[in-house]
Amino acid sequence: QVQLVESGGELVQAGGSLRLSCAASGRTFSDYTIGWFRQVTGKEREFVAAISRIGGSRYYADSVKGRFTISRDNAKSTVYLQMNSLKPEDTAVYCCAANAGSGVYYYKNYDYWGQGTQVTVSS
């Protein structure tokens, strides 16, 4: 079992920045690829970014490439999502998830999920 807790979401103006954190506990953190997904009520969960077990590979959705940066600190069992140049369409609940296997882009490949943190970007 892995427990994930997100933090850092809040209301921000368009063009602003936020850093989300995903803190893990339980099994060995470095055994998992960690991904960030976002969801708006009534829409399908959307892949945002993912980082491999030791951080050597990073993956981004086209919609956030160049604006968001994912990183991890395995010593602290934490993954970060730095979000810059935020847009109103980035408004969503952001969840982190742990993946013990492969296939980073599809949410059903993830084994454990956090509760999420709300990000609201005003225009």
Briefly say what this structure is.
With about 120 residues, the protein is mainly beta. About 0% of the residues lie in helices and about 50% in strands. It contains no helices and 11 strands.
List the helices and strands and how they pair.
Blueprint: E1 2-7, E2 11-13, E3 18-26, E4 33-39, E5 46-51, E6 58-60, E7 68-73, E8 78-83, E9 92-99, E10 112-113, E11 117-122
Mean pLDDT: 96
Straight-line distance between termini = 40 Å
How many strand elements?
11
Please mark out the parts with pLDDT under 50 across 5 or more consecutive residues, or reply none. Answer: none
Overall geometry: globular
- Class per helix and strand makeup: mainly beta
Number of helices: 0
Radius of gyration: 13 Å
Strand content: over 45%
- The helix-strand sequence is EEEEEEEEEEE
Question: Roughly how much helix do the residues carry, as a percent range?
Answer: under 10%
Main beta sheet, described?
7 strands, mixed
Question: How would you describe what is shown here?
Answer:
It is a single chain. The radius of gyration is 13 Å and the shape is globular. It starts with a strand and ends with a strand. With 123 residues, it is mainly β. Strands 2, 4, 5, 6, 9, 10 and 11 form a 7-stranded mixed beta sheet that branches. It has strands at 2-7, 11-13, 18-26, 33-39, 46-51, 58-60, 68-73, 78-83, 92-99, 112-113, 117-122.
